[in-house]
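2 proteins. here.
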Amino acid sequence: MKIFNVIKALTTGFLFATSCSALSHAGHGSNAPWEACEAKAINEDCSYTSHDKKATGTCQAMNKVLMCVRNKPLETLIDKATQPASAQKQSVKSLAKL
């Protein structure tokens, strides 16, 4: 009887510990991946931002709905904003040079 209780406690502990890992696959926190492909076709390039990251990928069908599936590394948007001006590409000519 005592061995049965030990086995029961170990089994319960194991099941509880392993069930918590399923929460990491609970889903997205925003609708941005789906919204990025609303007016696009399958395999078209797409991108969306979430917090301080930009995700870039292609539109793929998931459960008969298109969503942007990332196929490139996440870009950190804050890093770009805090780079010194000399490190950033200049797309506008200075008025002093005109």
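next one coming up
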Amino acid sequence: MECVPRMRSVPFSRQRAVKRMQITEVRLTLRTEDRLKAFVSITFDDAFVVRGLKVIEGNSDLFVAMPSRRRKDGEFRDIAHPINNETRDMIEKAVLDEYTRQLELAEKGGMEHQSGIPERELVLAEDYED
């Protein structure tokens, strides 16, 4: 059996100039549970969707949990996550800003469709539950 050397990948940023991704849509479904405050999906560049994010009330503040799956050993493992703090901060700000906006609308008694999404395209909370 011939041994094939493993190719070492070159970071994409070294290969060519990188265009920064933008969050173009945040969809949010408010929840009324103790710690779970919302299910979230985000769209990057009107081309790539990440579903299964959650707004969680921590011990001191709200935070955004990345989508995860339970492994056979019972441990949860992120299936998608930012690889640097700058991107994590961008995601958290966009999600928490939309959460605050939706919460204020709900408290005023008027629910508005998120980000102008037609009602038939709204993502239901059941779509996120395992």
